[in-house]
Design a protein that fits this description.
With about 260 residues, the chain is α/β, with parallel strands linked by helices. It has two domains: about 110 residues, Beta Barrel (Elongation Factor Tu (Ef-tu), domain 3); about 140 residues, Rossmann fold (3-Layer(aba) Sandwich). The strands form three sheets. Strands 4-3-6-1-2-5 form a six-stranded antiparallel sheet. The protein has a six-stranded parallel sheet with strand order 10-9-8-7-13-14, with helices on both faces. A two-stranded antiparallel sheet has the order 11-12. Strand 8, helix 5 and strand 9 form a beta-alpha-beta unit. The longest helix has 13 residues. The radius of gyration is 19 Å and the shape is globular.
Length: about 260
């Protein structure tokens, strides 16, 4: 059976910077899926949304379908994805940077086509578990949904969320995550900036893992940040190079179970 899509209305757009945003939407003719934190769905911006701008029209004509991990929690009354615009981004992502809440429609996979990913989180893994989430850039998106879910369900889990970002302008839901950690001591959040950090930045600086010219890891910050890291199950999401470095560093630190999701 082929992929089934349904129309969805954009309900809110949250701008982090001109090229980084979260988009919230709801299907028009069906309920939300009964999905898990870390699941993904498919999105298409239909050709009927064409603007007069020729660039938008040519992109819409391609009617490309793209998979996106959900940064929303199943406890929330909407779907949410987080996207960043890059020159090499697919056409759908470029169009999603141009849509407005309350005005534009998109097409999304029906609730029967919301799929589990490689880092989908299940309640059996959460209850009493030690969970280490590591995201690079928008790779933090599925972990935001997981943290929201654990908070809303008041689940018993020891959670670390580590995020690596280029600068403060690239932080994603930073204030929300700080607020959650203030109220829930079992959830810890530690971001690091890899390029630009002001003097008043109070968290990490630089990459979590650094290699030398001989491709040997010479810095591994994970054990210093997360005490007893060997007891944690690690979930990692980001670009392939970041995933490979992180997996090697975690394995070297004694982490036995590592789940990862690579983004293009």
């Amino acid at each position: 059976m082929g992929l089934k899509v349904v129309p969805a209305t954009i309900t809110e757009v949250i701008e982090f910077n001109p090229k980084l945003r979260a988009v919230r939407f709801v299907p028009e003719n069906e309920a939300l899926a009964d999905y898990r934190p870390g699941d993904f769905l498919y999105i298409r911006v239909p050709a009927s949304q064409e603007e007069s701008d020729s660039t938008v029209k040519s992109l819409s004509d391609k009617t490309e379908i793209r998979a996106y991990s959900l940064s929303s929690s199943p406890t929330q009354p909407f779907y949410e994805i987080t996207i960043v615009e890059k020159d090499r981004e697919p056409h759908v992502s470029k169009l999603l940077q141009q849509i407005d809440s309350g005005r534009d429609l998109i097409e999304i996979s029906s609730k029967d086509w919301v799929r589990h990913g490689k880092i989908t989180l299940y309640d059996a893994e959460i209850d009493g578990g030690k969970l280490l989430f590591i995201g690079g850039g928008t790779g933090i998106a599925p972990f935001i949904g997981m943290v929201r879910y654990i908070k809303d369900k008041n689940l018993d889990a020891d959670v670390w969320l580590l995020g690596s970002f280029r600068s403060t302008e690239h932080l994603i839901f930073h204030e929300e995550l700080l607020d959650i950690t203030k109220r829930l001591p079992n959830i810890k959040y530690y971001p690091t900036l890899t390029r630009y950090a002001n003097d008043d930045w109070n968290w990490g600086r630089g990459r979590f893992v650094i290699r030398d010219k001989d491709d040997i890891i010479v810095r591994n910050d994970f054990p210093d940040i997360v005490g007893g890291i060997q007891q944690y199950t690690a979930y990692v999401c980001g670009l392939k190079a970041m995933l490979n470095d992180t997996q090697e560093a975690l394995s070297g630190a004694g982490v036995k179970l590592i789940k990862k999701e690579a983004w293009d």
